[in-house]
Design brief:
Elements lengths: L3 H11 L4 H8 L3 H10 L3 H10 L4 H6 L29 E10 L8 E13 H6 L7 E5 L14 E5 L10 E6 L2 E10 L3 E5 L9 E3 L1 H6 L2 E9 L14
Parallel strand pairs: 1-3
Antiparallel strand pairs: 1-2, 3-4, 4-9, 5-6, 5-9, 6-7, 7-8
């Protein structure tokens, strides 16, 4: 990794960020990011990029010195996050990865934690989205119902502490053991409307309170991240 562009490419891969998603987050075009890969990150952008990706600006620029804030030079880069100080706002944190697990003989698959699999996210991401670490999990998006907003296979961050539905926000649900990711809207009588981003192929679905109970529909939590930040959440209205 001889240039800042090389280091940026590796960092995005480590964070499960595509160049397109990163470009959208930084409000530049994907071509700009491709140019950064080839020519290096512009000096005017170095601080903001290093802060977002939780690395030292000097390391990102030159490859010298410690990679992460608070890390001594020569210290292993892959030391477990739990051993790092939590005082820095730029620390990285480990989030558990969940999956749809199909157990032989079970009537329904279940969404459960995958042992020994973690993803690192910057503490700044969780702080910015007001997510408590113990409520945060990640899971892979399956299917094209939310394309082209959330692509098939993208990792998504779920805040299990936010299950109260705010109309038009994106939530993860467990529906008879199957993971689903949808825009949710409340309906009278405790019902729900599920809407896909790819509405041309996936029409709206409406469930009554009885159907929600009978079909084992459970809101897992609010989607706060998918390769970038979700800044659409609005303050809850108290009724």
């Amino acid at each position: 990794m001889n240039t800042s562009g090389d280091r940026l490419r590796v960092l995005l891969r480590e964070c499960h960020l595509s160049a397109t998603d990163f470009a959208a987050n930084r409000k530049v075009t994907p071509q700009h990011v491709n140019n950064w890969f080839k020519r290096g990150i512009p000096m005017a952008r170095m601080e903001e990029v290093s802060e977002l990706l939780s690395v030292n600006a000097r390391w990102l620029r030159t490859g010298e010195g410690p990679k992460h804030p608070g890390e001594r030079r020569g210290k292993a880069e892959h030391e477990p996050i739990a051993h790092k100080t939590r005082s820095s706002a730029r620390d990285q944190l480990e989030l558990p990865i969940y999956n749809e697990l199909h157990n032989q003989g079970a009537r329904r698959p279940s969404v459960a934690e995958v042992p020994n699999q973690k993803i690192r996210l910057s503490r700044r991401v969780l702080d910015a989205m007001e997510v408590e670490l113990h409520n945060a999990i990640c899971i892979a998006m399956t299917g094209s119902s939310m394309a082209d907003k959330i692509q098939d296979g993208s990792l998504i961050g779920i805040d299990r502490g936010k299950t109260h539905v705010i109309d038009g926000e994106i939530y993860a649900l467990e529906h008879d053991g199957m993971l689903r990711v949808k825009y949710l809207y409340r309906l009278p009588g405790g019902g729900l409307r599920l809407r896909s981003h790819n509405a041309n192929e996936y029409p709206d679905e409406i469930f009554t309170a009885e159907q929600i109970q009978g079909q084992h529909i459970q809101i897992l939590g609010w989607i706060f991240w998918w390769s970038t930040l979700n800044n659409r959440r609005h303050p809850a209205t108290v009724i």
